[in-house]
Specification:
The protein is of the alpha/beta class and about 220 residues long. It has a domain of about 160 residues: Nucleotidyltransferase, domain 5 (2-Layer Sandwich). It is about 40% helix and about 20% strand. It has 7 helices and 7 strands, in the order E-E-E-H-H-E-E-H-E-H-E-H-H-H. A 7-stranded mixed sheet has the order 4-5-3-2-1-6-7, sandwiched between helices. Helix 6 packs across helix 7. The longest helix has 19 residues. The protein is globular, with a radius of gyration of 17 Å.
């Protein structure tokens, strides 16, 4: 079974007033070894406006300044301002990564999803992510019909897979990731800086792989 992992970074928590800053995605397959590389990883940075002004809180701006995302947005914006004909900027630190203006997000996302959907034996994909309905609420603003055509209703949330008896609330992604490492060790590829969409996909993938493995539903590591 293939599971599409998605994560977004945004200017806030309200899809009606806030906007996307980044989309990350990748695929895991329960038939693979748990240490297998992620399939079809991608990363899309959204450069909101030429003056980079918009509805972004100081806390969110501080977070994305620390993790480097805001610097990447500013650098991509500078390139686009130099070349007015440029509709996208290739990211150097991602195998399939682009920075684009909001008007081009739907087209680039469709290009990223096409090989993923072509690799499936079914018409729709299982979706994985931490509180992934939040991510979907922002992605539906891009193209609600197409987004819902990609995925079936069933979703894998690492917080459910790693919920423990004494938890007073669902565990965070960081807690799920740490619980996975405590039980099975770290992944071969480090997840990297948190609140980077592709890195969060790596954390989510390892947590889902570990959670399913704990239930005996994922292929064990080959010796």
């Amino acid at each position: 079974m293939k599971i599409v992992i998605l994560d977004v970074e945004t200017t806030g928590t309200n899809p009606e007033t806030d906007t996307l800053l980044e989309i990350g995605g990748a695929v895991i397959d329960t038939k693979d070894d748990v240490y297998a590389p992620l399939q079809f990883p991608f990363r899309i940075i959204i450069v909101p406006t030429e003056d980079l002004k918009g509805p972004i809180s100081l806390n969110v701006l501080a977070m994305h300044s620390l993790n480097g995302l805001w610097a990447e947005i500013k650098a991509a914006n500078d390139e686009m301002l130099k070349d007015k004909a440029a509709t996208k900027v290739v990211l150097q630190n991602a195998e399939r990564g682009f920075a684009v203006r909001p008007s081009k997000v739907s087209v680039i996302l469709e290009q990223m999803m096409r090989p993923i959907m072509n690799s499936l034996s079914t018409k729709k994909a299982c979706l994985g992510g931490k509180n992934v309905e939040f991510d979907l609420s922002f992605l539906r603003k891009i193209d609600d019909k197409r987004i819902d055509q990609y995925f079936i209703a069933r979703k894998f949330d690492p917080a459910v897979l790693w919920l423990q008896e004494n938890d007073q609330r669902p565990p965070s992604l960081d807690e799920c990731y740490i619980r996975t490492i405590n039980m099975f060790g770290p992944p071969e590829e480090s997840a990297g800086q948190a609140h980077n969409s592709l890195n969060d996909c790596r954390m989510t993938a390892w947590a889902i792989r570990g959670g399913l493995r704990r239930l005996g539903l994922y292929k064990k590591a080959e010796v």
